[in-house]
What we know:
It is built from 21 helices and five strands. With 469 residues, it is α/β, with parallel strands linked by helices. It has three domains: 2-130, HUPs (Rossmann fold), CATH 3.40.50; 132-166 and 205-290, Serine Threonine Protein Phosphatase 5, Tetratricopeptide repeat; 302-468, Orthogonal Bundle (DNA Cyclobutane Dipyrimidine Photolyase, subunit A, domain 3). The radius of gyration is 23 Å and the shape is globular. The structure holds flavin-adenine dinucleotide.
Amino acid sequence: PRQLVWLRSDLRIHDNTALAAAAAKGPVVAVFLRSVAQWQSHGHGANKIDFWMRGVSAVKEALEGLNIPLLHRDIDTFDAAPDALLAIAREQHIDQLHFNVEYPLNEQRRDQAVRETFQQAGINVHGHHDAVAFAPGSLLTGKGDYYGVFTPFAKAWHKHITPEQLALRDTPAVQSPLGIDSDPLPALPTFDDTPVDERRWPAGEHAAGDHLERFLRFRGRHYHDQRDFPKVRGTSELSPYLALGMLSPRQCFQAVMSENGGRLADGDKGLCAWVSELIWREFYQHVAVGFPQVCRYQPFQSHTRGLAWRDDDEGFQAWCEGRTGYPLVDAAMRQLVTTGWMHNRLRMVTAMFLSKHLLIDWRRGEAFFLRHLVDGEFCANNGGWQWAASTGTDAAPYFRIFNPTTQSTRFDPDGEFIAHWLPELASLPAKARHAPPRDMLTTRDYPAPIVDHKAARQRALDAFKALST
Length: 469
Ligand code: FAD
């Protein structure tokens, strides 16, 4: 009996739970539904959508190598998914539908509607948990609640993880040809923004696997010491591949274990620190399910709902364009807009600058990030923003506000990252790049700080204190 696999953000043939389960039951037909209007309404921009579609093209080729045809349908929004899939299921005499679950609320609702439509049509639907080791709801506190704090979540994760959860799923064998052609992939509509050069982010599981291997070989063991320095490129830069499932977390865990004597929680410090980041990723996916208010534009900490965010279009624009007069912030924003990616340390610095120094609603920053990030992913992005804005799970306490200049001297000590992204400051002595003195600025095209750190900090503290009174 024929199986239909609906690919979404799991664009790979290796270690793909839904694909493996389907192939174990019968010949497989795969489908991808492109819903550009829906993705844009979620805020994804050209970088991510372009990378996504290049990933579809890569997986199509890989599937064809297994004689699995990939059908393609354009739908505007998620509402059209049930009918589009049912039509295919009928045309292709499908016995069962398989997909890997996506956890944000709109995706869950879409999948629920598909389940209902298929149930009425008498076709079984299997939602597989693939992007996480623990299905949300299966790792809970002693009281039976979802974890709202990372450290106990990570402890429980390590305590309960089993070899079966980490085992790679079977790659389907080459099947007998079904006599069905894959659909040609239509060109993408043009976007307002031009996507970043594809050589910066080659798509597909081959590229992802190469990246992983190189990271573990050359940088994995140094990760703990180098991960905070943006100029060093000490992190894996695998986030776009993980976000679209061109790489699975299991593949990452397995690769770590083979380098680290079969262990994830102890052994090499660098590798263990990296594992912990992968668990953060999983944590935020659980948070999106356990606390669905975060998917509805609400803060995780409900008492922060009334926070008096400032309406400051000029400040927001300066932040977006990298013109705040704080070089590390500005360099980071230029990295984001130019490459579609930003170093984690700088995501924290820039997000805190927007939400604390400018006291601008974090949701504006969240949307701007999503528009530019090639790795834009709701759960991690929302989690990161709410962390920085002190409205989230495990958030930075509101009074611990990064000083952007101190962050700069600590994490870009020689001002090299700044000089790379702000060539207008490159000729300054290294030490002057963190906070260029005004007399140097007048001759150069670089703005003075748009806010004073101390005053801005106090304004943020006052706004947060006003909440509890
Ligand atoms: P590495 O340091 O090599 O980490 C390995 C992997 O672990 C990453 O690829 C990523 O999948 C995961 N990971 C690492 N840190 C985190 C984290 N803090 N939260 C969740 N997962 C993590 N990550 C995204 O994938 N998409 C986003 O849209 C996103 N938005 C963010 C917004 C803000 C404000 C902040 C503070 C963080 C955000 N992150 C996001 C998390 C993190 O910054 C990126 O995952 C990381 O910088 C990606 O680089 P890397 O692949 O080199 O990470």
